[in-house]
Amino acid sequence: MEHNGKTYWGTVLSLLTKILIIWFLVSFGAGILFAPALNSISLGGYPLGFWFAHQGSIYIFIALIFYYAKKMGDIDRQFDVHEE
Amino acid sequence: MDLQTITYLVVGASFALYIGIAIWARAGSTSEFYAAGGSVHPVTNGMATAADWMSAASFISMAGLIANMGYGGGLFLMGWTGGYVLLAMLLAPYLRKFGKFTVPQFIGDRFYSKTASTVAVICLLVASLTYIIGQMTGVGVAFSRFLGVSSEAGIYIGMAIVFMYAVFGGMKGITYTQVAQYIVLISAYIVPAIFISLQLTGNPLPQLGLGSNIAGTDTSLLSKLDMIVTDLGFSEYTTALPGSTLNYFVYTMSLMIGTAGLPHVIMRFFTVPTVKDARSSAGWALVFIALLYTTAPAVAAMAKLNLHATVNNAVGLETTAAGNLVVNPERVKANADVYAADASLVYEQRPEWMKRWEKTGLLKFEDKNGDGRIQYYNDATKNADAKAKAEAAGWKGNELTVNADIMVMANPEIALLPNWVIALVAAGGLAAALSTAAGLLMAISSAVSHDLVKGVFNPNISEKNELMAGKVSMAVAIVIAGWLGLNPPGFAAGTVALAFGIAASSLFPAIMMGIFSKKMNKEGAIAGMLAGLFVTLFYVFAHKGIFFIKGTDFVNLIGGPNSFFGITPEAFGAIGALVNFIVAFAVDKVTKEPPEHIQHMVEAVRIPRGSKAVDGAH
């Protein structure tokens, strides 16, 4: 399972970490902690922080899962552990 | 045709469809009964998961809750969707690779311990049973409000329908009925939302309408709503936050972790053919869920604006002769005074839908200042300006009480939509409650027949007998769920929070450590689950009473309500999960490592190859 000095599991974990950072930033970051600051910016008729909490984070969650599914498929093939 | 007849026809047709599917999708083997034979297409499974997940509460109550909470309602939106990211990346593909039928079975095998699987079974049963009470009462409420039959009769009819497809079809029957139920419930939710968005903003997509200007003006819908509610003494809609930011944060986290740890959702991912499918299927599930969850905030804000506009003409919407609300752009721009003498609606001139919902008791008017007009405002406001204006106008207290569920249920009537849309909303509410109840019943019956009967009492049971045991425990679970729905314990309202708390504090951490920590041993896992469960139950019971029995609360012993950094008991699951992780790693450090073959098993679970080899293995 070694490949270019990195293990399959190590590669998976670094992908998960990256995705979880974005997951955290859009919901807990933009939707909650920084929402008051972001509300001074408007997105159409939406205050931006409110938009992240009520709409934006959900769209980004969907994108994250499909990105994850695609990347994992690539990693599986790269390390030759994909399903037959 | 009158409304009642159309409603019976639409609901009857949807039930006939579910029963037709039940006859087509009978289960012949335990693999079909527990996991639909592992042959469900990932998109189909995504749709079934969405119906499984979205309950009567999501369908009927969520928009109303958001309308009341404003920005703070985002905790439901982010919490109940963000959990799918965790589920997709941390649990679902690995549990699919493991290739067994139930959550307790994974925990029992991975931690090589019957005690671990028994603790998991107990957590699963408590979480699922408390959750199902809400669904059964939801079925009763939906029947009584939409069809005019008693709530008891509604529960009996609901039990009979679920019985037909769940007992004979198991997971296979449930999966395909859930697909049909999803289509019914999502159309029922979106059709009225499109009409309302069009009426208010001219934009047919509610997600865009919410961020648009009110039709014919350059005033954004949200800024108008903010202005009106602030004038009337309520909190500003786009920034309103009940409780602290910390509580918002922890509550959202608890709902996310709880969502990922709920067994009836996790087990849906045992039904897809491959690990790859499990990953994408979670994405599809979230797409189908998001259709409703991104529409809900639009429904919330628009229904709130509609309600204020109905009782106060200063908002700038007018009721036409036909009885529907239309935007009057000039009046919207005028920003008229909501406290003007002729702004409040004359009670005798209220629209038909208000009269109809007054009869149900969900809408109440009390003329406190005797002027024959409806004053709807926040009489307990801390906004000195609003308070002074209300007093100057001779308002003597808020005169209208509105049950939050009206925001969804009365929407089609407020917008004067055709009767078939109102009938569709009835069928949608029932579909949402029935599909979630069926998924929960599946989790309960498989835990009993597979984890208890086969796993603990009779490991040598034949497949045919296990299938029979599965069907019998399903039938018994339906009867128990029906009984609980008919005799809801006094604590019914608090129970869904308890289900999330248990899933978050016990099941999620145990499964996650089972996959991501190769060295985690049984002592650590069991101690962690028990510790997480204990602190969560302790905090919840301190506020709500031991097992929710009135008078047994001991909130003063822990220093008053929300004494743990202002965190509410509903939001405590994430803290329980943290305790679980800490205790598990501490105990793991001082006890011996798991046996060699378990560590190999964890390595095998982590890679997708070989998923078909263990397919359906016992």
Automatic annotation (TrEMBL), chain A:
Keyword Magnesium in record: no
Segments forming a coiled coil: none
Pfam families, sorted: DUF4212
Superkingdom to which the source organism belongs: Bacteria
Domain spans labelled Sodium symporter small subunit: 6-82
InterPro entries named in the record: Na_symporter_ssu
Transmembrane segments: 12-38, 50-69
Keyword set, alphabetical order: Membrane, Transmembrane, Transmembrane helix
Protein name: Sodium symporter small subunit domain-containing protein
Native species: Thauera humireducens
TrEMBL record, chain B:
Record keyword Repressor present: no
Organism superkingdom: Bacteria
Membrane topology (UniProt): Multi-pass membrane protein
Main localization category: membrane
Organism: Thauera propionica
Locations listed in the record: Membrane
InterPro entries in UniProt: Na/Glc_symporter_sf, Na/solute_symporter, Na/solute_symporter_VC_2705, Sodium:Solute_Symporter
Keywords: Membrane, Transmembrane, Transmembrane helix, Transport
PROSITE patterns: NA_SOLUT_SYMP_3
Family, per entry: Belongs to the sodium:solute symporter (SSF) (TC 2.A.21) family.
Entry keyword Amino-acid biosynthesis: no
Name used for this protein in its record: Cation acetate symporter
